[in-house]
Specification:
Blueprint: H1 16-25, E1 27-32, E2 39-42, E3 45-48, E4 55-59, E5 62-69, E6 81-87, E7 92-98, E8 103-104, H2 111-119, H3 121-124, E9 128-130, H4 136-143, H5 148-154, E10 161-162, E11 167-169, H6 179-186, H7 193-200, E12 204-206, H8 228-236, H9 239-246, H10 254-267, H11 272-286, H12 291-294, H13 296-310, H14 315-323, H15 327-341, H16 347-364
Parallel strand pairs: 1-7, 4-9
Antiparallel strand pairs: 1-4, 2-3, 2-5, 5-6, 6-10, 7-8, 11-12
InterPro entries: AAR2, AAR2_C, AAR2_C_sf, Aar2_N, AAR2_N_sf
Function: Component of the U5 snRNP complex that is required for spliceosome assembly and for pre-mRNA splicing.
Protein name: Protein AAR2 homolog
């Protein structure tokens, strides 16, 4: 039976007063001509659309991630596409499906069409599914630091986040020049089979405007003029890299906002590029030992944000994380050990870390005992220079 309304699959029943308020203050997203069977969702929920589907109503004001996957005649889904929109009170958004591209059109719907739909809202209402309010509290926890400026800075210029990036050939002029290519040629005979095969693959890059514009982590992790000993120290403590990254942001807390944005682009948008960026940020923040006392507010929010995110990591992904030496566990183990033994970290942050440790141990059976005793294979390698 075609679904015209998207009632919660959990059986959640919305309070009548809340429902009346959202009918007035909630946003409306109208999607015209979406084919039946399209996988469509908003935030943490998704459904297969029916013939009568026209969009979503009663959307709480704030940031939301709208996502969808076109389906072919056999029910096979295309890679997920999505976009983030900050719905204002009573905002009325209209988009149209492009049957040729099998995608939502980037063309702006005319004001005439929008006004006609508004005037016909009573008839349109029955084809709009209510926002699944049972996930709203969880969603707010995931995006509480994201604001317009962060989305505008990081979102793709095309306006859509694609789980499968559009790629094009990287022409010769765009390829690295000089020493790097020469070094590769010089050591070609010593490459593994996998590395040799990689060299034979075509050079590809995302089509300009389609990629997420997340802040690039500094390639150089030590200051100019650093001695060999200092270079080794900066390899063990990522504080210099963290501080360098923060200089690229308007406000330090944008780091947490970008971490949240990357995570929801992975969680709701299935973007692996966003997932890799999220992992890099987690490793960077956890490894910045000297920065913890000076950037206390960042670490308070980081611990809260990461704990919320770990509740939503899909089970199969969590298994992959564990299989690949569980980078989250090892990074947190390092961070918790630093916080525990540092005399410069205040008691409230230490208590927060201890409580989080206990909850993670209970939920995932992660062992945070004997954190000061590193296994030989986990201990950092210190390079000695003559």
């Amino acid at each position: 039976m075609p679904r015209r309304a998207m009632a919660s699959d959990t059986g959640f029943e919305m309070d009548q007063d809340l429902a009346k308020r959202l009918l007035v203050e909630g946003g409306t997203l109208v999607l015209l001509d979406v084919p039946r069977g399209t996988d469509f969702g908003i935030d943490l929920k998704s459904w297969n659309t029916g013939e009568d589907f026209k969009g979503v109503k009663m959307i709480p004001p704030g940031f939301h991630y709208v996502h969808y996957s076109a389906a072919n005649e056999f029910g096979e889904l295309a890679p997920r596409v999505g976009f983030i929109h900050n719905f204002k009170k009573s905002e009325f958004v209209v988009k149209r499906w492009d049957s040729q591209k099998e995608d939502i059109s980037s063309e702006v719907v005319s004001e005439e069409v929008i006004e006609r739909l508004k005037d016909n809202i009573k008839n349109l209402d029955r084809y709009l599914g209510p926002y699944p309010y049972d996930i709203w509290k969880q969603w707010k926890e995931l995006i509480n630091h994201i604001d317009d400026s962060v989305v505008q800075r990081c979102a793709p210029l095309c306006g859509f986040v694609r789980s499968a990036l559009e790629l094009e050939n990287c022409d010769d002029a765009s390829r690295p020049r000089g020493g790097e290519s020469s070094q590769k040629r010089q050591r070609r005979s010593g490459l593994s089979i996998e590395e040799k095969e990689e060299l034979l693959l075509p050079h590809l890059k995302p089509v300009p405007g389609t990629e997420l514009r997340l802040t690039k982590l500094p390639e150089k992790h030590y200051p100019d003029g650093a001695s060999p000993t200092e270079i080794t120290q900066h390899s063990l403590d990522t504080s210099y890299t963290l501080e360098t990254l923060l200089t690229q942001l308007k406000q330090p807390m944008e780091l947490i906002a970008e971490m949240q944005l990357a995570f929801v682009c992975f969680l709701a948008g299935q973007s692996l590029d966003a997932f890799e960026h999220w992992k890099r940020l987690v490793s960077l923040i956890c490894g910045a030992d000297a920065a913890i006392p000076n950037r206390r507010s960042i670490y308070v929010e980081f611990l809260s944000t990461l704990e919320v995110q770990l509740r939503h990591v899909p089970e199969d992904v969590l298994c992959d994380i564990v299989a690949s030496n569980n980078f989250v566990y090892h990074n947190l183990r390092k961070l918790f050990a630093t916080i525990e033994m540092s005399s410069e970290v205040d008691g409230r942050l230490k208590s927060q870390a201890v409580r989080m440790r206990e909850r993670l141990t209970s939920k995932f059976q992660w062992d945070f005992s004997d954190m000061q005793d590193e296994d030989d294979e986990d201990a950092p390698v210190v390079v000695t220079f003559e």
